[in-house]
Design brief:
The chain has a 6-stranded mixed β-sheet, with helices on both faces. Strands 3-2-4 form a 3-stranded antiparallel β-sheet. It contains 27 helices and 13 strands. Helix 9 crosses helix 11, helix 13 packs parallel to helix 15 and helix 18 packs parallel to helix 20. By secondary structure, the chain is α/β, with parallel strands linked by helices. The chain is about 45% helix and about 10% strand. It folds into 3 domains: about 220 residues, no CATH class; about 60 residues; about 190 residues, Rossmann fold (3-Layer(aba) Sandwich). The longest helix has 22 residues.
Length: about 575
């Protein structure tokens, strides 16, 4: 599911660039491209194959590719933040590339940086002399494209480089850029800023490094590279570029082409028709072919066999291995000790919770449990990254009052996805109605959290402070050098905010940051927001529905747990971290 709506409860007067940036990260998954048919239901994308009857009735069919409503909404949010604080956006673009695995966000921020107005122009004095030069933040967009980190998700793939241009060329995005003054308002062409220049440099670097170019072709990017070259108007320095891509050339209408017209020895991707299984495996090993390249060339009478998949395994990333778990199980490869060890290593390195969806498609209970471990590992890694610089203690206060009837089960599922990421000695959980009840998981995993929450039912009144007093009575103390992050799960309909704030003061807890996981069926209150104002600490919120997105959980945890350096500040610790990110530079 991709949503384009981001309702916020912060007062409009408080919507500065930092708050808007935090809301963007907490409030939307920002999946812009989908490789399967979908439905547009009031601006939200749903997979057509899994849509409910109600969604099918209300939705409009959407072809695979860019989902325009989500793209326009995200870009508009980024543009609003840029207008309020261009420097913050420059740091956020650098942060998005180097500190996140959020591919579509990298594309959107790169697009904005390549086309925005700070391009190093000379600023002249009263006499017309050049006094200084403006910041060249288009160079940050260039650096995002050119940044290279082998076998990493923290750089732009060839497909991402192409998508930057596709995003900028979309009519609604182009109109936003013209309205912002980033291009000629009278021009019919979409403003692309420096995209063509940096795409040309990106392609030239791959052409000059033949093994890199060949590797991209083997990884399945041949057609993407062709599209990139066409869109950028790239002129290769030698026929080798066309040969590696298997790209036959002909003279243009203008007659200006000089490279690749004669004597090309095209490298064509041949099918494996007529080859035996053993010969196919030998070919895979010899050419070091990728999974995508192999699957597209297999003859129907052979198909994907255990031996062929085993031959392809060295080319698979950890993410690929997790995704292919059902296939590995079906072909019996997980019974091989070496393959099983490699797969378990992939599970341990998970950075998202997509394994929970994959677990639904495996038969073995043991495999299902291992995939759930991958989800736990992603949460643990996110918590570890967010708390690496300081000692952070976390309180989760779960509303189980009568107003949570119908919403409590959704809250439980969200908590099951995130609580397993916390070390037990730094995690404190309590449920509340008019009385606080201590909750303690038996272990730091999803199963233990589900067991802990199993008996929680919605009933009674609402006193948030009761949970705080319950923790204090149980002996929970926070070291003076630690930062306390309090996350409330519920609809914040309860006592006055100043009473909730008094509970923390009475118990001697110094709160560094307060957050709300919004779970609402009926009316919503304002207890938590008012409490944050009374305590003079940063407040942030996230809709509990966001935790259904397997990619969103690690992102939200990092943003919520980055407590600020000192209490009494309005800016979150996560925004502080963004501003500390060094600006990318073109090498």
């Amino acid at each position: 599911m991709t949503t384009t709506q981001n309702p916020t409860s912060l007062p409009e007067a408080h919507h500065g660039p930092a708050e808007r940036l935090l809301e963007l990260v907490l409030g939307g998954s920002a999946h812009l491209w989908h490789n399967r048919p979908g439905l547009n239901v009031s601006g939200t994308w749903y997979a057509a194959a899994h849509a409910t009857p109600q969604q099918r009735a209300r939705g409009r069919p959407v072809a695979p590719g860019l989902f325009a409503p989500a793209a326009v909404n995200l870009y508009r949010q980024l543009l609003d933040i840029y207008r309020l604080n261009a420097e913050l956006m420059a740091h956020f673009a650098s942060y998005a590339l180097t500190q996140t695995d959020w591919r579509d966000l990298k594309v959107a921020t790169c697009a904005l940086m390549l086309v925005q107005e700070h391009a190093g122009q000379p600023v002249r004095g009263d006499q017309g002399e050049i006094a200084f030069h403006d910041d060249d933040w288009r160079a940050i967009g260039e650096a995002m494209v050119l940044h290279y980190e082998r076998k990493s998700l923290r750089m732009l793939t060839p497909k991402s480089v192409l998508r930057v241009a596709e995003l900028l060329e979309h009519p609604e995005i182009a109109q936003l850029n013209r309205a912002a003054g980033f291009g000629d308002p009278a021009s019919r062409k979409a403003p692309l800023g420096r995209w063509k220049r940096v795409a040309t440099r990106w392609l030239a670097a791959r052409e000059s490094n033949l093994p890199m170019l060949q590797g991209l072709v083997k990884a399945g990017y041949k057609e993407t590279l062709k599209k990139l070259a066409r869109k950028a108007g790239y002129k290769p320095s030698s026929p080798t570029f066309f040969e590696v891509l298997g790209w036959k050339q002909k003279q243009s209408a203008g007659g200006h082409r000089a490279v690749g017209l004669e004597g090309l020895r095209l490298v064509k991707r041949e099918r494996f028709d007529g080859l035996s299984e053993a010969e196919i495996c030998e070919w895979i090993s010899l050419e070091r072919l990728s999974y995508k390249d192999v699957v597209g060339r297999l003859p129907k009478d052979v198909g994907l066999t255990p031996a062929i998949l085993a031959a392809v395994l060295p080319s698979l990333s950890d993410r690929d291995l997790r995704m292919l778990t059902p296939t590995l199980e079906e072909l019996g490869l997980l019974e091989d000790s070496a393959v099983k060890a490699r797969w378990e290593k992939a599970v341990a390195s998970a950075t998202d919770q997509r394994a929970l969806n994959i677990a639904k498609n495996v038969r073995g209970q043991a495999l299902r449990q291992k995939l759930e471990e991958a989800s736990d590992n992603a949460a643990r890694q996110a918590v570890a990254e967010a708390t690496a610089e300081t000692d952070v203690r976390v309180m989760f206060l779960v509303d189980k009052s009568g107003s949570m009837e119908g919403a409590i089960e959704q809250s439980k599922e969200a908590l099951a996805r995130i609580l397993a990421g916390f070390p037990l000695d730094k995690l404190h959980v309590a449920a509340f109605d008019t009385m606080g009840t201590l909750l303690k998981p038996k272990a730091s995993n999803r199963a233990a959290v589900q067991h802990m929450l199993g008996g929680v039912k919605a009933s009674g009144g609402t006193v948030h402070g009761a949970a705080v007093h319950a923790l204090h009575r149980d002996g929970v103390r926070v070291p003076t050098d630690a930062r306390l992050v309090v996350i409330v799960v519920g609809d914040e309909a309860g006592e006055a905010g100043d009473q909730f704030a008094r509970a923390f003061r009475d118990c001697g807890y110094t709160v560094s940051a307060l957050a709300l996981m919004v779970s609402v069926v009926g009316a919503r209150g304002n207890t938590v927001r008012t409490c944050a104002a009374q305590l003079r600490v940063p407040f942030s919120e996230v809709q509990v529905e966001q935790f259904a997105d397997p990619y969103q959980v690690p992102r939200v945890l990092k943003a919520l747990l980055d407590a600020p350096a000192a209490t009494g500040v309005s800016q979150s610790g996560w925004v502080e971290r963004v501003m500390r990110t060094p600006l990318l530079k073109v090498a």
